[in-house]
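User: Can you fold this complex?
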Amino acid sequence: MVNLTINNKKICAAEEMTILEAAKQNNILIPHFCSMEGIHQIGSCRICVVEVEGEKTLQASCKIRVKEGMVVYTNTEKVKKARKLLYELMLSDHPKDCLNCTRNQNCEFQRLGEIIQVSESRFEGEKSKPDRDDSSPSIVRDTAKCILCRRCVTVCNDVQEIGVLNVQKRGFHSFVGPAAGLPLNSVNCTYCGQCINVCPVGALQEKDSTQMVWNALYDRNKRVIVQTAPSVRVSLGEEFGYEPGTVVTGKMVTALRDIGFNDVFDTSFGADLTVLEESHELLKRIKNSFLAKQAALPMITSCSPGWIKYFEHVFPERLEHLSTCKSPHMMLGALIKTYYADKIKVNPKDIFVVSVMPCTAKKFEITRPELKNNGFPNVDAVLTTRELARMIKEAGIDFRNLEEGEFDTPLGISAGAGNLFGAAGGVAEAVLRTVYRTVTGRELQPGMVHIRSIKGQEHIKALEVKIENTVEEYRFIDGETLKVAAASGMKGMKAFMEQLEDGTSPYHFIEVMGCPGGCINGGGQPRPSNEYVRKKRMEAVHSIDRGKALRGSHENPAIAKLYEEFLAEPLGKKSGELLHTKYTKRGIYNELI
Amino acid sequence: METISKQYKSKKETDQEKYERIEAMIEEYREKEGSLIQILHMAQEIYGYLPVELQQFIARKLDKPLSEVYGVTTFYSFLSTKPRGEYTIRVCMGTACYVRGGKKIIERLKEVLDIDVGETTADGKFTLEVTRCIGACGLAPAITINDRVYKQVNPDKLKDILKTYY
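Assistant: Here's the predicted assembly.
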């Protein structure tokens, strides 16, 4: 610990802290802009400058560590003048079209201007050349709005280790983008959208689908059916002033009905179905590996479309390791346009399926040509959590005072396991529950799973379950230990997956979610999404699971009925047609190889 | 660096031979931290310029994203993504050279060569560039043609200097 004074206040702070952090801990708020909590900061904006006694120039408080005896002033005339000047300079190359920007009143640049009380804009001059890239189905890049804070560069390179975004060129001509002026759809972007989550302005945004959904809702001949992902109900409330982690399932369902959706279904049902199909796929592969010594193990989850695109780019020769299961909302979409369409006697061509997702990569996923059945796309539009919030506001719905609604049946009934898909590690746990039950005939109890972190790769968890006293059919793995790994975020995945190349992976099953923390921190979630917010959302997902009478997906009665009436059995002929898919080899320029 | 690039130098080599030389050079430098600029510099010397394909090759060898490599290439005016002439003329526009008439030299060269800054003559002989301080302030105004430095350049003598390259 070191002692220092900030604004004549004596404070004590840990040595590794920056001035900015130490001040915050002592209720002194230094205006800051480009700094990012918990990760490496480039320190490019200089808004957080302070005076440090003995230093000739102003110092960036986000980069300078506290020192014994340091004397800091955060609010002198010199500091305040510098801050305002910096802000005005940034503003001089910004479009100032705030009133028709989607970030209006939710913009960090706007808020900063208010905090430091900038009331003039003295500099007018040449503006950077605007370059709007809406080539991808997921992310829109608008360099005119970019203020070059480089947060997206940090996220893309250091947090996700993709490296699609970097600063190009120099000085006034510099901009953030892919190499060689390539559009996002011509590089190895995974569309994870983490860059959108950290963008302080409107330079990076999801591609808007709200208008397309409104148009479907206006069309009287369309039956518009919506489904919501497990992680949306734990984050949507934040857009309406609720504390992070507040579960707003009931109000969300009512809001969707008020907007005009004809049926409101739960993607957790699709997740339960995924668990059934994926568990049986895993057991089939394990069986093949034990009895015939040939099977692509470990099997890797396929729920996260950002992760899938990453895998297609990085390991195009190892696609057989990916589970063939479609992601839960695609499974549900396929069933809505077949099983449910039959039930309600509506032609699937008149059905429009909307998925509300925490994710921008899902917008790309629904454009995949292989995710169609009978000529109809499984899902017609994807809205992010943020877009749904915008639609609720646009529809004049008083969200906080809504009654609690319930999902429609039968595709709205879910077990706890399906709901777990919202948080990292959830799929692994859900699949373990069903695999254990299938193999032993008994339910998995919490104490049976041995969980540990992998040394040097703390973000990856290893789960082990000892299989004993199996049913007759699975006698061949009696006494074996089932090994599962769960990871989230793309960082480190290249090295981790290299075990696939040499066949040394000890695991049977690996869950990977493309975003750090899983869907609760997806690229379509409300901003900001910091460590505290992520923790709260994660807890909320687990509280939903604990509150469910039915824990395992195999216990879901609606799933059992679906198999009885329609699908017959997991991995059966119908499942193969509707619920499973194939993957595409991609090069570094997103070319098909 | 001088010795390394000389060591690999040979005349009239094919693209494949150039790539092989670049690969050998990368192997030598890859473990050194912050070697990207060095590698790009030498790759340009070997290949003449840095087309996207070559940058992609370097990125793959160094296991770095192309956007990072391209970001560095487009940051430094010394590095070029377009083909260059046999000789690159760089006119220093550092403070001392600027004050002592660097601008006049540029104007005259543009006239004599009939090209703009950043362009290459039709015969592929010269590329004209502007550079920041080359550290020869005492000899201002200075220009460089490939590795050779010309001091206290008189705009009227430029033609004579260029003649020596034909």
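The first strand of chain B starts at residue 87 and ends at 92. The CA atoms of residues 11 and 76 of chain B lie 27 Å apart.
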